[in-house]
């Protein structure tokens, strides 16, 4: 497998799967809300890497291979992720005007619509996961576990809590524990959920869920450390979003606390530990391992 | 029953039930997010009338009377309603600084925290409904139906869609159909959901759900028409929020299109129709009927 494996094509295959589904599912429902749907779709199809869907599919692939069964769940998580980006970019939050090389949602549609598009995408994520017509092959207990854990990882105990701590600590000197809280909650919670979700949908046992959750949390933290590094070492053109934005927003980062070299070492160590977590799955975990490696090698 | 029935005490009884539960459930979880929880709790306990919980309990009471079973669902809906108020009041939306006689969330905690508090309350509503530990007596299919329909009524096909249409039509001349779309989606969708939810949790059949849904939609539309009327005829002190805010935001209202008298007649007709919808339940629907009457008699 490893000789012929091409990560780029692999990601593209699953990204297309989820994109096709979202394009067909999220349609203009009413003449009064055309602009709202337009705004939701703008950010949803603004060129995201689909890392979260690909993690879900890859984790699920360890257990089963009915990938179409997973697609609405992968789409739901991507919708939720997109809502978080739209709200994070708002003037009252990170005040970013560029995302994936394009104007952010509120620049295109105005703040009010951007807030509502985020609200609607968040709400729709739950609607999609809990829709029995869209998910005829998902047992009820699995559906509930998937949606409940999404809320837990995305709400005030998870992602939103991390975003709050991030905003709330802007301009303040912070310690490693606080920075780690922010990164784990803001980014790693949702990524660990994605990996666990694959095990949930694939009927893995509690040990499987725990392993994949840990894998996701470690690559999530590494992902965020790399983000901090790239924010310093890259240009706006390379990133597709404004470089040096952490400095602009007076945000504490790993490189600031530990320096560049030590930060790179920490990211590398986390990736090694993550891969170790899932080594028991041997070849079945191959795509996940390749994704983990890609996370520290990426340049944008 | 009717001779001894006191609507105020009845509402207070159920409002206390849901308030007690929310106070115990929504607790400070982590030192890094104390301010976020504080902001969520501020708006949650800012003196709301608990109309939505009371509708859920009252509708459920037609079928069963294990009211404690319903409480987490009533709390979840109140959390979702509170999120919608926080986001509606934001400067980019209705820009209101007063709600229930108190400063709005963003005035107290800043815009960023207000946006996140709303996001967290919305997410937590789903978490509460889907939590098996909190809801040991709710069958899985009922849990899914309740949470799925909440998303459908609250998202872009429901409440958020209505809010978008409202904002998007500010300052424009609009026709009755558009105004009706806004009112139905912005307000009546969630109220009709509340009434249907009572039937869902009480194991009502599809006819029961439809009847109570229709009842809720009609009182919801009447509620919004009365809101429009009160916005014109009341003072800020009476309302606990800024009076004449529709005019300030150049919003079309029923009185503006139909005049005050005709608007009052329309509200009265909707309440009569709503009561007719549930007349089949006879005495069991008595609290709902009293609530319907209260909606057009209220002064704030």
From TrEMBL, chains A, B:
The keyword Hydrolase belongs to this UniProt entry's keyword annotation: no
> Which GO cellular component terms, listed alphabetically, does the Swiss-Prot or TrEMBL entry include?
cytoplasm
Picking any one GO biological process from the record gives: terpenoid biosynthetic process
Q: Which Pfam families match?
A: polyprenyl_synt
UniProt-listed CDD domains: Trans_IPPS_HT
Q: Name one GO molecular function term.
A: metal ion binding
Database matches in InterPro entries: Isoprenoid_synthase_dom_sf, Polyprenyl_synt, Polyprenyl_synt_CS, Prenyl_diphosphate_synthase
Concerning SUPFAM superfamilies, the annotation shows: Terpenoid synthases
Query: Per its UniProt record, what NCBIfam families does this chain match?
Result: FPPsyn
The family note in this entry says: Belongs to the FPP/GGPP synthase family.
Designated name of the protein: Polyprenyl synthetase family protein
- Provide the species name: Deferribacter autotrophicus
């Amino acid at each position: 497998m490893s000789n012929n494996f091409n990560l780029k094509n692999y990601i593209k295959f699953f990204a297309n799967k989820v994109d096709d589904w979202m394009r067909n599912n999220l349609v203009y429902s009413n003449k009064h809300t055309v602009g709202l749907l337009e705004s939701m779709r703008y950010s949803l199809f603004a060129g995201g890497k689909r890392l979260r869907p690909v993690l879900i599919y890859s984790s699920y692939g360890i257990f089963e291979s009915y990938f179409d069964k997973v697609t609405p769940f992968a789409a739901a998580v991507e919708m939720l992720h997109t809502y978080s980006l739209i709200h994070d970019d708002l003037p009252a939050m990170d005040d970013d005007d560029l995302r994936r090389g394009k104007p952010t949602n509120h620049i295109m549609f105005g703040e009010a619509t951007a807030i509502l598009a985020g609200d609607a995408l968040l709400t729709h994520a739950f609607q999609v996961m809990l829709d029995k017509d869209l998910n005829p092959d998902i047992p009820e207990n699995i559906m509930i576990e998937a949606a409940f854990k999404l809320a837990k990882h995305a709400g005030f105990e998870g992602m939103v809590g991390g975003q709050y701590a991030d905003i709330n600590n802007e301009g303040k000197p912070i310690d490693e524990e606080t920075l780690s809280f922010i990164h784990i909650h803001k980014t790693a919670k949702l990524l660990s959920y994605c990996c666990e979700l694959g095990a949930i949908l694939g009927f893995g046992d509690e040990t499987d869920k725990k392993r994949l959750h840990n894998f996701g949390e470690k690559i999530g933290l590494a992902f965020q450390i790399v983000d901090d590094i790239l924010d310093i070492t890259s240009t706006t053109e390379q990133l597709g979003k404004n470089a040096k934005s952490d400095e602009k927003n007076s945000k504490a980062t790993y490189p600031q606390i530990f320096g560049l070299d030590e930060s790179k070492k920490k990211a590398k160590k986390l990736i090694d530990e993550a891969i170790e977590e899932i080594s028991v799955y041997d070849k079945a975990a191959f795509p996940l391992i390749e994704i983990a490696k890609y996370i520290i090698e990426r340049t944008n």
